[in-house]
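Take our chain:
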Amino acid sequence: MNSRIVVLGAGESGVGSAILAQNKGFDVFVSDMSAIKPQYKAELEKRNIPYEEKQHTETLILNADEVIKSPGIPEKAPIIKALRAQNTPIISEIEFAGRYTNAKTICITGSNGKTTTTMLTYHILCEAGYKVGLAGNVGKSFAWQVAEQEFDYYVIELSSFQLDGMYDFRADVAILLNITPDHLDRYEYKFQNYIDSKFRILQNMTKEQTFIYWSEDPVIKAELEKREIMASQAPFIDTRCEIRDARYGAQYLIDTDELIFGFEEELRIKTEEITIKGKHNMYNSMAAAVAANIMGVKNETIRRSLATFQGVEHRLEYVATIRGVRYINDSKATNVNSCWYALQSMKTPVVLILGGTDKGNDYSEIADLVREKVHTLIFMGLDNKKLNEYFGLNTNCKIIDTDNLADAVKAAYDVAQKGDTVLLSPCCASFDLFKNYEDRGEQFKQAVKQL
């Protein structure tokens, strides 16, 4: 009798997992507490994969030999508690798909910058002519690609939620960009729990694999002093000090106006040659370039790729200039540290739009930059109480309260002066008013275009 696999969640990840499980001969069942989108329902029906929606039927789920869980389903969900109580293994799509491919994997995580770094790494490998798939939080389902396509490489963006469901999976190259408080509502409001989750990216790695990281991130630095890292290390820095990689004898550093890569054949790239701007994007560019070099990409391809990459939608995305005011969509800034990077890159006075679902945010991280660069704060959430209490006490900014994005954009239009930037960089999750951060960003762009 075939082993039974139950897939919880029928989005991109879940449907991909179900397709791979069927492909490998498992008895598969898919269950989603929400309505399943028509395109995913069609894929399940086309393959005769049984499913249910708008419910979790325990008798059809608790008999699973193994469960593949969508990363969006929290541990506190009743069905997860029931599965845990009977010790049913619960894994992520990435863990499951990793069992069925021998492709090289570059896995990227961090509180901020992971999508840009993932897309840039993928761009470089594509430019090099590699047969490469894009998976995880971006691109298509990893499992779906393993089931129906053949790639030699995968570039995979990993959230902490995906890492939580990974046990035997091993990355060939692991990139950890930074760690700042995020998703604390999913981690018992304990920062260390979130840190431990991020470090799961290093599980099972040996000297044959490589760990790339920003060596001056204070949290990473402190954790490395406590942990034994088995992987070869390729740290990068942004000061002129000597840090050498044990495996390659290389040093990677960001000087004032150039990136310096101590590859076998040294590569230097002026920051002005790189299309994506800002200090944070130099970190992202550095990590992506080092990963590409480890995978054998030539220096000139890396240089050309950094000069042609167009960036990520909803991340410091220019929308329009109206009456001399620039509008920037940074809807992907779903935590405070992302907003910090956005504000740091601003060169003009700012009207800042904040708000959404608070995840246990500490706004003190951006207070100095708000005082320095922002003259008006506009809140747009269903509940702005915490924002009002913090910024009302800690800044002298004008504060405008709204409960929707259209009103927030109109208010920004009314207060912005020629030469200002209106920045949507919410610090918060989008689920109070929007489907996701993409929906929030699209609505912002639409509202700006209607001004």
Q: What stands out?
A: The radius of gyration is 22 Å. The chain is about 35% helix and 20% strand. The longest helix spans residues 279-294.
